Amino acid sequence: MTEPGTHDFRVVSSEDVYQGRIMALRVDEVTMPGGGHARREVVEHAGAVAIVALDENDEVTLIHQYRHPLGRRIWELPAGLIDKVGEDPVETARRELVEEVGLAAADWSVLVDVAASPGFTDEVVRVFLATDLATVDRVMEGEEEADLVARRFPLDEAVRMALAGEIVNGAAVGGLLAAHAVRTITAPARAADAPWPDLPTRFPNRRS
């Protein structure tokens, strides 16, 4: 038995189970501290970006979007998959902000990186802060985007909604709380091109 915190969880075998449009599933056999092996199911994901778009009145744009696994519409930040291999994440964020809510931003920074559910998936969402906004024409790419409802909320109200359980999307909750911290306690945001060590790569490389 190794000392706690020192074991090397080495993968001794890996089996591909499924590959779809936005995710893949594999099963890894991993060495455990007691000397045995354990099977770990891993959902591979392309990674995603989300955007806290704050206007000059500290109002944030949220979208009301149907999410089939939950069976209902929920409030979220504008967001999208990093589905172009090698694309700069901030460029993905710029595109999604235009497509989903018809906004462009002159200033960008990084608020938080959110591991969606690291017990079974490598999905990580980078949440950007976008300011100095301008309205532009939307460029809708799919049927779901045609059903989106966009609305601006005071940032304080959006934070209240998150704390009240009215906003449950993890990246939205984390991003809104981080934006509130940046605005109220001068917590520093990161540069738009800050390193992203947990950006998923396995599924994008598999698709390419």
From TrEMBL:
Residues 44-175 form the Nudix hydrolase domain. Pfam families: NUDIX (PF00293). Gene3D superfamilies: Nucleoside Triphosphate Pyrophosphohydrolase. Keywords: Hydrolase. SUPFAM superfamilies: Nudix. The keyword Phosphoprotein does not apply. It comes from the Bacteria. One of its GO terms (molecular function) is hydrolase activity. This is NUDIX hydrolase. The lineage of its organism: Bacteria, Bacillati, Actinomycetota, Actinomycetes, Pseudonocardiales.
